[in-house]
Amino acid sequence: ISNMRSWCVSGVLAAILSVASPRRTEACSCASPAIEVLPRATDLAPTNSLVRVFFPAPEAVPALDAIIIRPLRGSPVEVDRRRLGAAALQLVELTPKALLVPETRYEVVIEPAGKKAAVVGEFTTGKAKDEKPPVWKGVTKATFVPKMRSFRHCTTGNPYAALSIAAASDAGTASQSLLFGVWTSHDAAGEPEGPPITLLREWSGTLSLGHQSTCSPANFAFPAEGNSLGLIVRAIDLAGNASPPSTVTVELVPAPKTP
User: Hey, is 118 helix, strand or coil?
Assistant: First the structure.
């Protein structure tokens, strides 16, 4: 009987604690961030496409000349390479020096010196090149979420900015393969200055700048000082054509509550 009383008391206490104490949701089940390639396997890429390889951490980026494009089991295409990215997210952009062959399957390969080559992506070209920029009406709202303890599924608790955006479309690029370049400075004419500091993908009408989810690497580090951050954003298609810039200010300090 005493054992039964102990079990009952333990059960009641456990029930009380489960209600009174905050709990995390189930463990995050998303896959660890991995190498991704644009164009995607399902894209019909324009013949003037750039190829972008996303790496989840700086240490994952190999020597740039180890990243190659080639027709399926063919010879490498001559390309120019540049490295972009901010925080953990890193990107290597490959620009072919000549148009890609129409209606041809290509593979993206990482081939470090002295190591076995690894195919990290494939795509097929369409029939023509694309010289038209995406149609996009820009950022409609910017909301800053400061650092906080998080109990939500797959969230980091780190600060991030949620940029609500209008839908973008492009004649030569599927909406899932459009990127959004972000700049923090511009020239005297108001045009973005230099390469973008990061490239984002849209998710449910929102761009997440910072490190919102454990399912993706941090793509931006917010400045330690200042009350606001000016951003310039452009939609960019597979061929590198960019929409007119959209400017937005992110208020890094929450607005005071009205009495």
Answer: strand
